[in-house]
Each structure stands twice: as C-alpha cells, then as structure tokens.
Amino acid sequence: MSCLGDLLYMNTNYEMDIYRALQWYIPAATLGDAYSRYIIGNIFFYGEGVEQDYREALHWYIGIIDSKEDDCYQSSALEKIMEIYYKGLGVKKDVEKALFYHEIYANCGHHSEKKYIADMYYEGIEVPRQAEKYIPLYEEMSEFEDGEAEYRLADIYYHGIGVKADEKKALDWYERAFFDSTNRIKGHIFLEGKSKNIKSEFTSFVEMFEYYNSKANSGEAKAQYRLSGLYYHGYGPSVDTDLGYTWLLTAAENGDIDAQYELAERYHYGEGVEESLDIAFQWYMKAAEQGDEMAQFQIGEFYYHGDGTVVPIDYEKAIFWYRKVSNLEIAEFRIHDIFEERNR
Description:
Oligomer: single chain
Distance between the termini: 38 Å
C-alpha cells in the first residue's frame, strides 16, 4: 500500500495527488508501517498539499516511537518531535517532554546529545535543576572519554552542586578529565603520570595545587598546563582566569602539546579570549606538527573550508593533514568529498 502511495506522492511520472496518496499511506500506517507513518507525519508537518497541522504530524511521529518495531525512521521522527515540543509548534511548548524524547534520541546512537540534555538539567534551562538527571548523564558521557563532562562532575562534587560536596570524588573526576583531555584520540593512559614524573594521586586539591605550582615554577611544561586548569576551574585558591591563561600560554610556549591544542581552541571559539582564527591556526599547527591528531584534523579543516582570511582553500594540503588522522572517520569522509568534488 505504501508503494502505491509513493507513486502518487513522489514519482514524477504521476501527477502529485496528496489526498489519494494519503488514502494508501494511512491504511499501511494503521497496520504498523513505520515508513508510511513517517511520510504522513512529514506531509502534515510541512503542509504538503494539506493544511499544515503539527499536532497531526506529532501523532504519526509518536506512533513510530511507540511501536518499537522499526527503528529505521525513529531518529528522524524524534528530531521532529523534539522540534515540535522545544518550539511549541501547534502544541504548548513543553521542554520536559522535549527532553524526554531527546533522551530516547540520544540512546539511538547519538551519544553526544546526552551532554546537551545534562547541561539543560544542570543549568536549569526552562526545567528545574535536577542532580538525579544530570549526574548519570555526565557519567555516561565519561564512558566516551568526554573531558568536559568529567570536568563538570568534578565541579559538581567540589562545590556541592545539587549533591553533598565530596572532595575525593571531585579529585577522581578532575584527574580523569585531565587524562581524557590529554589523550583525546587514544583514550586513557593512566600511567602517563609515572612516565612523565608527574604525581597521579593526591589526597586533596590543596596538595594537588601545591605540587603543580612547585613543578610549574621550576619550568615543567606539563605541570604548567595542569596548573592552568586548576586556576581556570577554581581548584586552586580561587578561580583566576588571568593566571589560568598565563600558565596555559607559558606551557604552550614551552612545547606542551595539550596546552597548544587548548590554546588553539580558545582562540578558535573565543573562549575567554578574543576570537582569532589566525592565532588559532598557528597553535593548531604547532600541536599538529607534534603529532596531535585532533590538531591535524583542524588544520585539514582550515584548508578544506578556507576559513576566513587565514588560509585559502587548498585541497592538496587538506588531504595531507586528513591522512595523518588515521582513526577519525570524518577525515575519510572529507577526503572522499574532495575526490567527489574533483570528479564533477
């Protein structure tokens, strides 16, 4: 039945007839066909040949989710459901319902979305702040070595945000965040501290701060990088972004690869400094030349897009840097796109 609907809805050899198409799609959808439900939802969502009706579209999209029989169209249907509830399209705006479906969407393989949901509950953006929601989500993100989520967990336990303050847990999460940030591609190398003569276990943040402060002032670049993090995140005497930046820059100038990459990101996105693609490119290049794979990918991106006035589009140089990123699938996609573009 859905095939007959397609002939009337999409086949250019037939005159489009939405009403007749619906006569075939609706019975198929009623029998549980997810594809038909999705098409009907789109017809009403976009108002294709019928009066736009978000509520009717929502009915058919939710039918796909509730059936749990075919996940082929679930992600696309969930995106529409989220948009309807987040924006209040044809229904009362309901952020909590939107987040409910957003969590389902995240569990359909879109793991990075969990951090957005956690941030919504953490910040209390249009929903009550709920520790029982955001802590498990941040913990799930830590399984994917998300340093930002781990820094947030360290903050939560250090400052007692929604939970009882627990310095030991804060220390654990803070250290994990450092290791995940240091090894953005390769993951945990927990013995890094021993191999670089940097202490990897502390009993308090005071001890941690004193240790890195001493090492940083003696000229150790890695300690300078970690001391900058303590100042940025307020695990030293207080939050001090100026000292955080000073130590970050010092560590980068002394050749610390992680400091170079973080400094590049800060200038790239204007995080605590004035945005500058030119300065970002320079620090990405320094980290890339030392072998940082994410930096190598970013250099490839600069040449692929020809960002701003920094560098012109140069596909040869883009391919050169993408090929250095052996285990980033998106780099392979970029190379494929370049060859496709050339063959047009």
